[in-house]
Amino acid sequence: MREQPRLLAFYGDDFTGSTDTMEVLESQGVRTVLFVQPPTEDRLKAFPHAQAIGVAGVARTMNPVAMEQVLEPLFQRLIEMKPHVLQYKMCSTADSSPDIGSIGKVVEIGKALFHAQRAVPILAAAPHLQRYTAFGNHFAAYQGKCYRLDRHPSMSRHPVTPMKEADLLRHLSEQMNGNIGSFTIVDLELPPTERLARWETAIEAYDALVIDAMNAEHIRTIGSLIGQEAESSTRFVIGSSGLSLSLGAYWRQLYGLTTRQEQELEPEQVLVLSGSCSPITQNQIDTAVQQGFSKIKIDALELLAENNPGARSKRVLEEAERSWRNGQSLILYTADGPEDESIGRLHDKLLQDGEPVSASGERIGRRLGEIGKQLIAALGIKRVVLAGGDTSGFAALSIGLDALELIQRTAPGAPLCKGCSMDPAIDGIEIALKGGQLGQPDYLVRIASGGKGE
Predict the structure, then answer these.
(1) How many helices (H) and strands (E) does the chain have?
(2) Using the 8-state DSSP alphabet, how is residue 329 labeled?
(3) Is-contact 50 32, C-beta < 8 A?
(4) What domain of life (predicted)?
(5) Spatial separation of the C-alpha atoms in residues 148 and 139, rounded to whole Å
């Protein structure tokens, strides 16, 4: 067997997407550690087994100026690790805009750092999550049906970056300078020699290249095309966990990687902290309550109020502690789905205060994390779920997480992880970060049961 090099370094534009990437890499035998901040050399020494190093971030909530300030030095740090591939992990729903979480801005940053590289490959599709791209147009499943993204019941109404355009070439061209092309399903299904020639032509012709994918065979083909290029020097790519999966499958075959055994877990009371507005999360909360969970709704405006926030937090903590000591798993949440009237009130308040709507994710996430940390310390909580792609990362930071390693692939894109921290009360905690669009209806029940459901 060949010596195994550092295969991948990645930055995730939100925390839930970062754990999704860790999950799919582990499924292919690529041992992965996900850090909350870029690790020092000394910290890396604690994880000598890591073949992939990830950094979970929050660029999905940033404006282009902030993205450049954060991403350029961070990419430089990851390049120093000499991976075969450096990936900017984007959400598989491609939700972004010229002003918030601009994927086009990431192309520009990558092109500036990788002067010799030709087109930056972009793969939004993740067929294992029922996210597909065909002839540049993006689709996602919802409750058993597949929708073009601009007609998707949830993503077309995202509170910060609603998707109004399903054509990714048009969507991304509004976010970047330079030209953008596509590598379609027709190209992917060409005979190998013709496919490679088409690939070489395409990456020479464009600054960015949107890649289609509809099935597992397309994913394997893409991994081979990019993986072979990366044998000679580090390649910069942008993509969902579908791209991570494609590369992992290539390396699994090349290096003979094997998947490690997942841990068997016992049932455990669960604390759920949800800042999600998704109807999928709402359904999961309703299902969990039907199965005996307790829930406490927190008014977002009260949560963020500057006047006497300690008193408000104290009331929430007291109610939460009473519920927990009754032996019930507990959900603290801020919204009943996308139609909750509190969302509009919160956005109006932010605008009145001169803050962008996108600030809601950070402000809610950090306050939920503060409450969660107090409850964990007071009650000895051992298993936690953070729900909400825009809020969970900030909640994780407030809780004090340092790094994550996979424990169990409970649901595609939303695994249960071991949390590492310098805080003894947090170190070793079992924690799942779940994006709003991910997980089965009984996802929270599965987490509490320690298994994968019936």
Answers:
(1) 16, 18
(2) -
(3) yes
(4) Bacteria
(5) 4
Residue type, 50: A
Distance of CA 134 to the CA centre of its chain: 22
- Summarised one tens digit per residue, pLDDT across range 321-351 is 888 998 999 999 888 787 777 777 778 777 8
- Tell me the two tokens of residue 302: 């009260």
**How far apart are the C-alpha atoms of 212 and 223, rounded to whole Å?**
13
Instruction: Identify the H or E element spanning 394.
Output: helix 392-399
pTM of the predicted protein model: 0.80
Which pair of tokens denotes residue 414?
């939303």
124-176 pLDDT, tens digit each: 999 998 999 999 999 999 888 999 988 998 888 876 778 889 999 999 999 99
Beta bridge partners of 247: none
The whole-angstrom separation of Cα 282 and Cα 335 is 8
Residue 115 phi, psi (nearest 5): -60, -40
Q: Which of 99, 89, 219, 103 is nearest to 168 (CA)?
A: 103
330 close to 295: Cβ distance less than 8 angstroms: yes
Per-residue buried b or exposed e for 312-344, using 16+ beta carbons within 10 Å of the residue's own CB = bbeebbeebeebbeeebbbbbbbbbbbebebbe
- Find out whether 12 and 243 touch, Cβ atoms under 8 Å: no
Domains identified in the chain and CATH numbers? 8-255 (3.40.50.10840), 271-449 (3.40.980.20)
- Asked if residues 394 and 362 have their Cβ atoms less than 8 Å apart, the reply is yes
Cα end-to-end distance, the chain, whole Å: 39
* Overall size of the chain counted in residues: 454
Beta carbons of 335 and 343 less than 8 angstroms apart: yes
Cα separation of 74 and 91, whole Å?
19
Nearest to 117 by CA among 220, 45, 203: 203
Average pLDDT over residues 369-391: 90
Long-range contacts of 323-326 (CB under 8 A, 24+ apart): 323/294, 323/296, 324/269, 324/271, 324/375, 324/379, 324/381, 325/379, 326/294
Q: Are 248 and 359 in contact (CB under 8 A)?
A: no
How far is 166 from 132, CA to CA, in rounded Å? 11
DSSP for 133-183, written as a single string: EETTEEEEEETTEEEEGGG-TTGGG-SSS-----BHHHHHHTT-SS-EEEE
